[in-house]
Amino acid sequence: MGHERIAVLPRTTQWRKIVAELAKLPTAETTVPQLASGTLECVRTRFQQIHRDTGVQAAFEFLIGLTAIGGMGESASEWSNLPVDFTNNPSPLRIAQALRTWLSGRENSLEYRSIAERAATDAITNWHARQSEQGSLFGPSDEAANVWKKASNGAGFCELSRLFFAKFTERYLNYFLEREASAALPTIEDRERFREQLRQHVDQISQHAFETAKITQSFAAAWYNRHARRGRPSQREVEQFLSRAFGKIREELLREGSQP
Q1: 131 contacts 168 by C-beta, under 8 angstroms
Q2: 206 alpha carbon, distance to own chain's centre
Q3: pLDDT tens-digit profile of 180-214?
Q4: CA atoms within 13 A on the CB side of 186
């Protein structure tokens, strides 16, 4: 899976159709193109430079560190500053608290850091739920080290990184949809109705983001095996990976935005 090459991504629903479902308002014919193109353009623009943000870099670096110390491989000793102790069998919520500590003071933008922290927390809880037998968020249902050891190879890292980029994209799409709705919808009542529909259709947007993030899997395994499996990647190497990943997602959003 980690080396899978993807030419054309599958789509469960076209983006404009998702927005159309959300914008079932009297002005839907005019607002759907506005909301769809405006949201995609905002996200595409931000994804050009977002890999340079230290908060985004630190959030992703934390996930790499989890795979290293969980796998107890050759690079584990290089992550002694990661505030996670697997001998205490931490729950996902404990790990998420450690993530917040790790990110403290590491941001160029509070907006970016907040979205990156939430995306990484989503990735942590989703990975744990998928890999452990019971998937409890409030206590150890399986040894935490065993859960994270499963991410300490190319295939595991592919899945974990896809979760991160999917959740990051999902949260950004939601953020800018609300912003574009405020500009495009004429009344407070319309905007409130749209927000309620947005909450009801979050699963559609989540699935859409997950399909879009699939494109990052084509190179994630090779990068992990080369840079993270036997050592700690430099900040520059992390930034380069993020640049490529967000660039791939941006290209996919550009293709999608050009489709009728």
Answers
A1: no
A2: 10
A3: 777 777 778 877 877 777 777 777 777 878 888 88
A4: 6
